[in-house]
Design goal:
It contains six helices and ten strands; from the N terminus they run βββααββββαβββααα. It is an alpha/beta fold. It has a four-stranded mixed sheet with strand order 4-5-7-6, with helices on one face. Strands 1-3-2 form a three-stranded mixed sheet, with helices on one face.
Length: about 240
């Protein structure tokens, strides 16, 4: 099928070769560091690995290209673009803030013609609409994630050391060995059950670090249908990452 470019990443956490389709960098191959035995020159192994899985890789790349083309045809953010919020498309509407309003604000408006996210901008606010929306969405993401943690943590018998909200491109959530949890704010764009599944996933790592069968069994006690949410996030990742572009 011709050349298949990829980005090579070495990670001290990697124990084997892994291929992912990144929303921005396309094919990313992660391997152990060069100091690991047998991984100093992984290129021949990578070539064989990709050749064996070329139909799978090209199928996902084609799907990603189709998604990118669809995203390029969207309306500009300030001109009524549809943006997902908790899994439901909302049209962005921008208007001047009422007189006396000190800070730009965002509110959700429901109507017969569909749901809207209304951005009321003050005259002094020079930030782009995307920045105003992101600040509002981050607050909602934290609130939703904290509620999910409050629901699952007692049943699992765990307490996270810290919870941070970030804008990651490769992971929806992560858990450190010190018990700190990190989540992408973009989870608030996804259906609530997807956010809930990611929160439960990371909390389960406070009991079982790693993705052993014991981990998946534990996760299933909290979210029996976690695989459905994982597939949804994988399929819609490009849309969520480009929502405010």
């Amino acid at each position: 099928g011709g050349d298949l470019p990829y980005t090579l990443r070495r990670s001290p956490r990697a124990t084997r070769l892994r291929v992912t389709i990144h929303p921005e960098r396309d094919v990313v191959v992660r391997v152990p560091t060069a100091s690991h035995r047998g991984w100093a020159h992984p290129e021949p192994l990578i070539t064989r690995f990709l050749a064996e899985r070329e139909p799978w890789v090209r199928r996902h790349l084609a799907r990603q290209d189709a998604t990118r083309a669809r995203l390029e045809d969207r309306a500009p953010l300030d001109e009524g673009r549809l943006v997902p919020y908790r899994g439901v498309p909302h049209r962005i509407s921008v208007a001047p803030a009422p007189r006396g309003t000190r800070r730009s604000r965002v509110s959700r408006v429901g109507g017969d013609d569909g749901d809207e996210l209304l951005v009321e901008r003050t005259a002094r606010d020079r930030r782009p609409t995307a920045a105003i929306l992101e600040g509002w969405l981050r607050e909602r993401a934290r609130a939703d994630l904290e509620r999910a943690i409050e629901r699952h943590a007692p049943a699992l018998g765990v307490t996270p050391a810290r919870v941070t909200i970030r804008d990651t491109t490769t992971r929806w959530g992560s858990c450190s060995r010190k018990g700190a949890l990190s989540f992408s704010w973009r989870l608030v764009l996804a259906p609530p059950e997807a956010l809930d599944a990611v929160a439960a996933h990371e909390l389960c790592h406070l009991r079982v670090f790693g993705h052993s069968q014991a981990f998946w069994t534990l996760l299933a006690t909290r979210v029996p249908d976690h695989a459905t949410s994982r597939r949804w996030l994988r399929r819609h990742a490009p849309e969520l990452h480009a929502a405010l572009d």
